[in-house]
Design brief:
The complex is a heterodimer. Chain A is of the alpha/beta class. Helices cover 27% and strands 28% of the residues of chain A. Chain A has 6 helices and 8 strands. The relative contact order of chain A is 0.22.
Chain lengths: 219, 501
């Protein structure tokens, strides 16, 4: 019986053709939010942002509220780890928010990402609920008048009115290679929509709420 | 009328040997050879007068020195002893004059003009300085003249003290050898070719012709030979000691008040540093602990190095708080001290085309505050280890200047749309039901449900030559609710390594 060899897909850029518009959607000096459930591609989007920024020579900081960041995966995505400051906040959302505030206020990082995406059964998820509106307003004010893009990644909306941009990431279908039985996970698809946007300057129009992106993340 | 210039010279001959005798007084008056270098080829670098009388000279090997008749004592050179002796000699000078210059090991010049009202005439002053040096453990010769050269010559010739009357420096120097000027090799060879052997012969040369042949250096040497020394003393100042202490009336057994007292010390210390345009590249702290009656009080100490030299009290306290909170003193504290090792840091100006990135100092201060929040060891630059073991990495401590300089390079790889894995640290135990060797149901903390698609196993293994060898079969799985995860099985236990997101 002939064995069929499955051709591996060529490595591809998830934000094909639309990378610039999506990255530029995040306003400087403002708090933005990426919201998405498990396996929707939110973390892949965050990793791509970090990779794109570090590849361009920028200094970025990642405040890891759930200690789940995978540096090997980020390196595979093209991130320059030497330009990445990783803060492991030990599943303490309050400490993570305070650390992000300090880093954003310093104004020296092109991107500060606060990753508070957790599993619903994690104890830290319950502690997230205890973070009030004042926490997000403090973050908003910390990054104001700085060139930093402060991005909050979570499984649900947290920042409320403090976020100038909210992107919803919805899960597309997983793509498996091989038939009749899957032999390899190729990747997943994601759909990114603008749930909320607010112009940071009258001279810089905000991204339209009609904007949406279809992304593909390959393993 | 110009003020009369009077220079005193404190000279300790055979300084390395004198420093060794100062550290070990029992060696006084005995033939001593100071050795330096690696065994077995150690050489004599200095000898005492008694050793020279036995024929032991600098440059000899250790074996040659010990083969001389008489009992020659050999001691290895100890830089710390020499540094202490230099400090002691300088302090002898500082006690007598506000302007003291160190010309080299065992040679100190001081401005003695106008000190008659304090210490009497010059011979009395010279005897006083020699006596003071003896108290400090050094046998110093003292010469006083109108110039450094003349004072040094006077000190060399003196048994203890020689004062050259004012205005007689040139006559005093005439017969002195020209080597007294510490000539360069080229200049010494030139004078030798010309037959100039004494300072008087050099002083008698026509000045204009000498300047034409040797330039300004020749004119300078001739001036010195005539006893003319116009260069002001380069004053030495004792190194500042930055230390703040606090003695407590009662023992303190609570961390917060202790932090408060340390913060006060840090504020005062950093204010002193800033006032002298200095920063500190190392801080040391100590706490004296309360002891029971009859016991000797113990002291706990520690030190830390800030990412960049700093004089910011906040940055200092951020690290000190984290350090003491992690390992608090084991007994109540009765006294505390904070010391700083100062360095001079030149101010750097931000370039006009700056891209807004912080200065290393600002970044270091921010990072210090974040460390105080998350703890040391939880912040840094991730570095992947050369291993196939999953999640092999380490966090490198932050080097602020290096991080900022490396981030400027734009030789990074092109970004790729890679599916990210959110790792479970540690991997979560999982219960997996298999049918036909393939996982069909998963139950792990926070996840439960049928597996609708899976791929694997992908065998990974490594470090088979070590005791902690590892091997695992990895599976990519999709649950019915759309969750994608990675499972691993090491032959006995299933774990959830992470969730694809």
């Amino acid at each position: 019986m002939a064995i069929q060899k499955e051709p591996l897909p060529p490595p591809g850029w998830g934000l094909e053709g639309s990378a610039a518009s999506l990255l530029e959607a995040f306003p400087r000096g403002q708090l933005s939010e990426i919201v998405g459930p498990r396996s929707a591609g939110g973390s892949s989007l965050v990793t791509s942002l970090l990779a794109h920024a570090t590849a361009a020579g920028a200094l970025v900081a990642l405040v890891d509220g759930s200690d789940s960041f995978d540096p090997a995966g980020a390196a595979a995505a093209g991130a320059a780890l030497r330009s990445l400051l990783w803060v492991r906040a030990g599943r303490r959302p309050d400490a993570a928010c305070r650390a992000a505030e300090l880093l954003a206020r310093s104004g020296g990082f092109a991107w500060v990402v606060l990753d508070l995406s957790t599993d619903p059964t994690e104890p830290s998820e319950r502690r997230l609920s205890s973070l009030g509106a004042a926490t997000w307003i403090r973050l908003q004010r910390a990054v104001r008048d700085t060139p930093t893009r402060l991005v909050l990644h979570a499984s649900r909306h947290l920042a409320g009115s403090a976020a100038a941009l909210v992107l919803n990431v919805t899960r597309g279908s997983a793509r498996w290679m091989g038939a009749p039985r899957p032999t390899r996970l190729e990747g997943i698809g994601s759909r990114v929509e603008v749930a909320k946007t607010r112009a940071s300057s009258p001279f810089l129009p905000a991204v339209s709420t009609d904007a949406r992106w279809t992304l593909a993340w390959r393993l | 009328m110009a003020a009369l210039r009077r220079i005193g010279c404190l000279l300790v001959p055979h300084f390395a040997a004198a420093a060794a005798v100062r550290a070990e007084p029992a060696l006084a008056g005995r033939p001593l050879a100071v050795l330096d270098g690696a065994r077995p080829g150690r050489l004599v670098i200095e000898t005492s007068a008694e050793a020279r009388a036995l024929g032991v000279l600098p440059g000899m090997t250790e074996a040659a020195a010990q083969s001389r008749p008489g009992e020659v004592i050999c001691r290895e050179r100890v830089p710390a002893h020499e540094a202490a002796a230099r400090q002691a000699l300088l302090e002898v000078g500082v006690v007598h004059s506000p302007r003291v210059e160190e010309a080299g090991p065992g040679e100190v010049y001081l401005d003695v003009a106008g000190l008659g009202a304090l210490f009497g005439d010059e011979p009395a002053l010279a005897r006083r300085m020699a006596a003071r040096a003896r108290v400090a453990g050094l046998h110093a010769r003292v010469g006083i003249a109108g110039s450094r050269v003349a004072a040094r010559l006077a000190a060399r010739r003196a048994e203890e003290c020689v004062c050259v009357p004012p205005g007689t420096d040139a006559a005093h120097l005439r017969a002195a050898p020209i080597a007294l000027l510490d000539l360069s090799l080229e200049m010494a060879q030139r004078f030798a070719r010309w037959g100039i052997r004494t300072l008087g012969e050099l002083a008698d040369l026509p000045g204009r012709d000498l300047a034409e042949r040797l330039g300004t250096e020749g004119s300078r040497l001739q001036a010195l030979a005539r006893g003319e020394d116009l260069r002001p003393l380069d004053p030495w100042r004792p190194p500042p000691r930055f230390e703040e202490t606090h003695e407590l009336d009662w023992a303190l057994d609570n961390l917060e008040p202790l932090f408060g007292l340390f913060a006060e010390c840090a504020e005062r210390l950093c204010a002193r540093l800033e006032a002298q345009a200095l920063a500190a590249d190392r801080f040391e702290w100590s706490c004296r602990l309360a002891a029971r009656v009859g016991e000797t009080p113990r002291t706990v100490e520690g030190a830390f190095v800030p990412p960049v030299p700093t004089h910011e009290a906040r940055a200092v306290m951020a690290v000190l708080r984290a350090t003491l909170a992690a390992e608090p003193p084991t007994a109540p504290v009765t006294a505390l001290a904070l010391r700083a090792q100062s360095v001079r840091v030149s101010a750097s100006q931000e370039p006009l085309d700056g891209d807004g990135r912080p200065s290393p100092r600002t970044l270091a201060e921010t990072v210090a505050r974040v460390i105080a929040l998350v703890g040391p060891g939880n912040l840094g630059v991730p570095v992947l280890l050369d291993s196939h073991r999953p999640d092999s990495l380490r966090l490198e401590p932050l080097n602020a200047a290096a991080l900022l300089s490396q981030a400027k390079s734009t030789d990074g790889e092109e970004a790729r749309g890679t599916l990210a894995l959110r790792r479970c640290r540690p991997p979560r135990p999982a219960q997996v039901r298999l049918i036909g060797g393939r996982p069909v149901y998963l139950r792990a903390a926070g996840l439960a449900g049928p597996i609708v698609a899976s791929a694997g196993p992908w065998r990974s293994s490594g470090e088979w030559w070590l005791e902690n060898r590892w091997a695992s079969d990895e599976w990519d799985v999709e649950l019915a609710d759309g969750t994608l995860g990675r499972l691993a099985h090491d032959g006995s236990v299933w774990v959830l390594e992470g969730i694809y997101d």
